[in-house]
Amino acid sequence: MGNLSVCLLHEGMVDKAGKQVTTSLTLIDLHDISRSSRTYGTLHTYIAHPSPALHNLALTLTSHWQEGYGATYNPDRKQALDNMTTFHHFEEIIQDLTKRAGRTPKLVATSAKEGGERVSFEGLRELIRESDESYLLMLGTGWGMSEELLAKADLFLEPIQGPGDYNHLSVRSACAIMLDRLLAP
């Protein structure tokens, strides 16, 4: 399934009041999203954060697990993080993926909220399997992506639905579920 990549975004999110914000970086998200991405064979995993301090924190974390003691202590984590790149902005991710895949990716927005014209998991799964297009699954943080960011997407994936009315998964859990629905054999 080498034509699907994943990115975790922090800029252009909304807060509880609907105001556009930049959310904080959560280190466990980096670990778990890279591990899920590696397990399901995505082309690449990206993290974007505009803050120089938090960008450097992500680089420090990945460096620890890719070099020296961390790499020897847990080679599986090293292998997962080898497939992850950290950038400051979403546009840099698109440029890098375009180089890697040889074509501009189709952007796939995600949201736990209802609304808008959505592609089903089954529909996107078929596109991924049958197309030579490159796809980038956009994951948001906070209370979701801003309308401005959502408007950049070519496709909008349906939300994950549980059996009840509660729907507030962590982004790392949602990522694992999405990748399983889209890429599992």
Task: Describe, in short, the structure shown.
With 185 residues, this protein is α/β, with parallel strands linked by helices.
Model description:
With 185 residues, the chain is an alpha/beta fold. The protein has a single domain, classed as SPOUT methyltransferase, trefoil knot domain (Alpha/beta knot), CATH 3.40.1280.10. Helix content is 43%, strand content 17%. Strands 5-4-1-7-6-8 form a 6-stranded parallel beta sheet, with helices on both faces. A two-stranded antiparallel sheet has the order 2-3. Helix 6 links the parallel strand 6 and strand 7.
Keywords:
185 residues; alpha/beta; Alpha/beta knot; 6-stranded parallel sheet; 8 helices; 43% helix
Q: What percent of residues adopt helix (DSSP H or I)? A: 40-55%
Q: What's the level 1 CATH class?
A: Alpha Beta
The class by helix and strand makeup works out as alpha/beta
What is the correct CATH architecture?
3-Layer(aba) Sandwich
The third-level CATH topology is Alpha/beta knot
Q: What string gives the helices and strands in order?
A: EEEHEHHHEHEHEHEH
Number of helices: 8
Q: What is the name of the CATH superfamily?
A: SPOUT methyltransferase, trefoil knot domain
Apparent shape: globular
Strand content: 15-25%
Provide the gyration radius in Å: 16 Å
User: Quick one: biggest sheet?
Assistant: 6 strands, parallel
Low-confidence stretches: none
Mean pLDDT: 93
Distance between the termini: 10 Å
What is the topology?
Elements: E1 4-9, E2 11-14, E3 20-22, H1 27-39, E4 45-48, H2 52-66, H3 68-73, H4 75-81, E5 84-87, H5 90-101, E6 106-109, H6 121-130, E7 135-139, H7 147-150, E8 155-156, H8 171-183
Parallel strand pairs: 1-4, 1-7, 4-5, 6-7, 6-8
Antiparallel strand pairs: 2-3
Helix pairs in contact: 1-4, 1-8, 6-8
